[in-house]
Inverse folding.
């Protein structure tokens, strides 16, 4: 399975790597192009491993991932550059096989995850965030929150179940 | 051919979450690691459910710096970590008090 993934991804890198560079070039700083290309293939790698199915139209798929990456990036940098925002709206070089519905899924998913986490019950949210975002171990969290390690496990379990549920319910 | 029902899916998801959580807690002993591997290889659905879990976990990186998440992180740090008094609360409290005394003195 892993070998299959590696093989597929390396074929795609050869085939679509330079196209991706050309796609990113007018939209981001030169220094960021390599990182973005790498991020696209990393995400594809996760997808291929996860889906366990053949992707029939890799070109459409790859450029959709690239576009979603730019969109989520623009959220973080939205105040920085107006022209960057404009560039996102401009569709040149994106193959027309990408449906608009497919292209926004990344963004919707992003919003759903954020909403799910923010809306968690307070203690479950805290335990989850401390472990995931503040790099705290279960033991650290137990000490800081003054609860047992088992309770930390329960809180994190609850958080993970809730997040996945929200994501599936709203799909 | 077996039919994948909704409750199967829920059970797999719950089991995947259980194992994922156990692994991250660092509490798994050798016997449990063995059971975990057994479960993982038992069916393709188990394996997919666990991958989904790993994928969710990786996806959280993308939202870690989102404004709403940053606010929630700060709120939780202030509520549950350290001395429990945030700079914002302290500022609000002192300013409030200052305003109150100013108001009382003025009135």
């Amino acid at each position: 399975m892993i070998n299959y993934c590696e093989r597929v991804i390396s074929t795609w890198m050869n085939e679509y790597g330079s196209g991706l560079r050309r796609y990113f070039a007018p939209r981001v700083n030169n220094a960021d192009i390599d990182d973005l290309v790498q991020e696209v293939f990393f995400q594809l790698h996760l997808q291929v491993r996860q889906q366990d199915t053949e992707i029939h139209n890799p070109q459409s798929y790859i450029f959709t991932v690239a576009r979603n990456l730019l969109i989520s990036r623009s959220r973080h940098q939205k105040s920085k550059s107006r022209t960057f925002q404009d560039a996102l709206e401009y569709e040149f070089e994106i193959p027309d096989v990408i449906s608009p519905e497919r292209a926004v899924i990344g963004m919707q998913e992003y919003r759903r995850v954020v909403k799910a986490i923010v809306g968690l019950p307070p203690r479950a949210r805290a335990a989850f965030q401390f472990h995931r975002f503040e790099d705290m171990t279960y033991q650290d969290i137990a000490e800081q929150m003054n609860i047992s390690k088992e309770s930390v496990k329960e809180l994190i379990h609850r958080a993970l179940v809730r997040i996945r549920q929200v994501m599936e319910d709203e799909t | 051919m077996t039919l994948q029902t909704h409750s199967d899916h829920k059970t797999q998801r719950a089991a995947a979450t259980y194992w994922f959580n156990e692994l991250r807690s660092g509490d798994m002993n050798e016997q449990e690691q063995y059971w975990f591997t057994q479960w993982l290889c038992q069916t393709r659905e188990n394996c997919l459910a666990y991958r989904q879990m790993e994928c969710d976990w990786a996806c959280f990186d993308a939202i870690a710096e989102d404004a709403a998440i940053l606010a929630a992180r700060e709120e939780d740090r202030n509520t549950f970590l350290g001395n429990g008094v945030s700079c914002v609360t302290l500022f609000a409290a002192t300013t409030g008090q200052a305003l109150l005394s100013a108001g009382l003195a003025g009135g």
Observations:
- Chain A touches chain B through 37 residues (CB under 8 Å).
